[in-house]
Structure formats: structure tokens, C-alpha cells
Design goal:
This protein has 368 residues and is an alpha/beta fold. Helix 10 links the parallel strand 11 and strand 12. Helix 3 packs parallel to helix 5, helix 4 runs antiparallel to helix 5 and helix 8 packs across helix 11. The longest helix is centred in the middle third of the chain and has 20 residues. A seven-stranded parallel β-sheet has the order 3-2-1-4-5-6-7, with helices on both faces. A six-stranded parallel β-sheet has the order 10-9-8-11-12-13, with helices on both faces.
Length: 368
Amino acid sequence: MKKVLNIVPYPYLPYFSGGQKLIAHFNHYLGEQCVLYVAGTEDNDATQATTYHFCPLLKKSRLRYADAGAFFRLKRLIKKEGITTVIIEHPYLGWLGVLLKASCNIKLIVHTHNIEYDRFRTLGKSWWPLLKAYEKFVLRKADIVFCITEDDREWMTAQLHLQPQKCITVPYGIVQESMPADKAESKQIVCATHQLDPSLPLLLFNGLLDYKPNHDALMAILEEINPLLQKKGLAYNMLITGKRLPAELQELKAWNKQHIFYAGFVDDIDLYFKAADVFLNPVQSGGGVKTKMIEAIACGTTVVSTKTGATGIEHSVTGNKLSVVADHDWNSFAEQVVQHCKQTTATPASYYGYYNWRQIALQVTIHI
């Protein structure tokens, strides 16, 4: 079997964010297909790495991004184990990957999650041009670049002038292989937990709530979308889930009479995705694919999204489970929510064929 090293620059076991979850599942399923070593920070829970070897070779402090000692530790591991391919998550440790490629004669793959410089540009960071130059350098030095969406792949070839044959789409995956059979049961459980009427449509929004794109989306729900839903006469309940809700929103208690309730961080987000009738994604900024949308559709839930929020989704496999409206067109957004509360459709089988992690891992092994 092929021997592969993946370098992960931050803790991901256990995972809390979509990016951490991507890395955890990517490594788990790739570990089923090859002999995989993962070099990560010391503050990971290595007992959760069940299909691969976890090696705590990176420091916990921010100095790890410029730790020359990591080069020698990883080089020893590569030589000792006969590793032939190195993957780095994100381009941030690209300098390390480039040095390992030159000194160990290995194949270098950069696994991108976004166009990083463009994400920080949209967030208003003044130093994004420096990141662009560095990111472009790293991606050009790589033998292969894994792109999370077709949009990213086309961007890299057009804007960064990468060779098309070295850019491979490796989407964010799902563990489900078919439409879940327990949506009705899940809704009963969630509604009982939060003392909600299960006969009413259940709307859901989820995310890390102090992250600006998610915070802005939440405020759009509170100030724009929810008042419109009330004016349209829709009877419903809405749950907001996720960590780090700003303290000034006081756990959304002021909105309880408007059918909105804060559930905090939930251990089993899939249960809430399956319980929901419609998932709301009014995101207006930030780059990359919105992983929560992919997971919601996998759980059989219809998603209503802004155009920006739907960036990177493979529309050819979503069927009627994704409805996209123009950014800031909140009236159309609310109309789509009302419409989808009145109809039920299944997630197409092609969706699971495209996004299932095991199928993705099989395709990845072709390139390593």
C-alpha cells in the first residue's frame, strides 16, 4: 500500500468547526485506503485516530508556523517509514512542504479548503496581497493541488495560472450513503428536547456564531428574514445552534416570542439537520464552500441560501434540495422558506454518489 504523510497545522481531534471535521473525516477514510501518517499538534486527542498513525510532531504555539525544527522531525519520519507522498492541509506550512519535497524526493500535495487570500480579502484584511503571493508560490511548487470545489479549481487555473492537470476537485464529504430514514423520529426528539410543537415546520441555522460571516447571517435572520416570515403568516419554530453567541444577544431570549430559540452547541448536529424542515443559509461574505449546507442536504433537509452562501455547491446533484436567491433579497429568501415548508422532496441518490467520503477517498488514492 502507498505510504502517505498528511501535515495538519492545528488541532482537529475532536473537531468543532467544519474545517476540523473535514480534516478528521478526510484522514479517517484515506487511512482505510493507504498507510497514512498524520503529523499534528500535541493538543489533539490521538485516540480518535483509528485508521491511521497520529504523530504529535508540531508545537502547540503559533511558533509552529515558523518552526525549523519541524523540518528535521518530519524528514526523519519520512525516511524511516518510506513515505512517498506528503499532503499539507492549507498552504500555511507550504514552506515546510516545499523543503520536504526538495530534500526527500517526495510528491507534494496541497489540500486547499478555500482560496485563502481571497477569503481574507473579503473579510477586509489589509495584508491579503502578501498572503496571495505566498499562496501562489506554494501552489505552484506543489505537484498536485486538491481543490474543494470546481469553482476553486477554475479560479486557480484562471487567476493563479496553475496547470489545469495538477488541480483536482476533492469536495467536502459526508458519511451518509443514502437518504436518512429517521427524519420524522429526529424531529420528534429535537422538538421534545426544546419543548416545541412538532406539527409546525422547524427552521434551523447553525455555525460558529462569533465568526463574522455567520454573525452577519444571524443578524439578517433576526432583523430581516424573521420579520418577513411573520408578515407572510407562516407558523413555525426556529432553532439557532452553535458556539460563541455574542453576549449582547443574551441567548436570543428577546426573540423567543418571535419563534426563535437558541440551543447552543449541540453534540449531534446531524440529529438537528435531520429534524429541520428547512436550513437557512443567508451568508453574505467569506470564501469557500459552506460545509453545513452539504451536511444538511445529506440529512434530507432543504436549504435556502443566498448566492454567496451557495458558492461551491455542485448544483447538478442537489435536485430540489437547494434553493438559491440573490444576496440581500430577503423577501425572495422568505418566500422560498415558506414554499419549502409546504413541500417535501428527497435528496437525489446522485448527491450521495458525489459527496460520500468513502467514494472521495477512493478517488484521492489515484493521485497519491
